[in-house]
């Protein structure tokens, strides 16, 4: 009895596994293999998108807050109706944030096969990206509620304040 050769399908499976391990080894890139000049265009793209995202979020929140200041309400308008209108602008701001976030993800990860450098930059900005997208979702929900029921919320709050005095 000599050496017994394994069945052919096991031999092919072993070669496939070896090829996958070799391919994964080629894809496992360390930080030393990401030169700064290769990451720079992707970092610049992420920075530009984040600036637009944070400005849009800030404006959306500011619109809600500023709508509650009586001195900023135009003549002939009431506080409840003005606050309700701010909900539509807040919702639009949240949609704009979502558009910029999607654009950033698509540019960095690529729609089909992304560039390794873009994917690396996206991994590094994953937490701020997640915070921005969750904030956009929450802001769109709040904006929609204010848009639909903002006048009722402010009217009942004002009535409650007047009765408490």
3D architecture notes:
It is a single chain. The protein has 165 residues and is mostly helical. It has one domain. Helix content is 79%, strand content 0%. The chain has helices at residues 8-27, 36-66, 79-109, 116-124, 126-164. The longest helix is centred in the last third of the chain and has 39 residues, at 126-164. The protein starts with 7 loop residues before the first helix and ends with a helix. The model is unreliable at 9-13 and 23-29 (pLDDT under 50).
**In terms of per-residue confidence, which ranges show pLDDT below 50 for 5 or more consecutive residues?**
9-13, 23-29
| Helix coverage percent | over 70%
- The coarse overall form would be elongated
Order of helices and strands: HHHHH
Number of strands: 0
Topology diagram in text:
Elements: H1 8-27, H2 36-66, H3 79-109, H4 116-124, H5 126-164
């Amino acid at each position: 009895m000599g050496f017994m050769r394994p069945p052919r399908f096991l031999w092919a499976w072993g070669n496939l596994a070896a090829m996958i391990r070799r391919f994964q080894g080629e894809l496992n890139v360390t930080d030393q293999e990401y030169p700064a000049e290769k990451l720079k265009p992707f970092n610049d793209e992420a920075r530009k998108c984040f600036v637009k995202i944070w400005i849009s979020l800030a404006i959306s929140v500011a619109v809600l807050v500023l709508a509650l200041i009586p001195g900023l309400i135009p003549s002939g308008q009431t506080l409840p109706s003005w606050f309700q209108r701010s909900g539509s602008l807040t919702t639009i701001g949240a949609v704009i944030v979502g558009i910029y976030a999607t654009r950033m993800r698509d540019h960095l990860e690529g729609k089909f096969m992304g560039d390794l450098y873009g994917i690396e930059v996206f991994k590094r900005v994953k937490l701020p990206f997640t915070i921005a997208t969750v904030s956009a979702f929450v802001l769109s929900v709040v904006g929609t509620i204010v848009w639909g029921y903002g006048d009722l919320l402010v009217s009942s709050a004002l009535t409650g304040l007047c009765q408490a005095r």
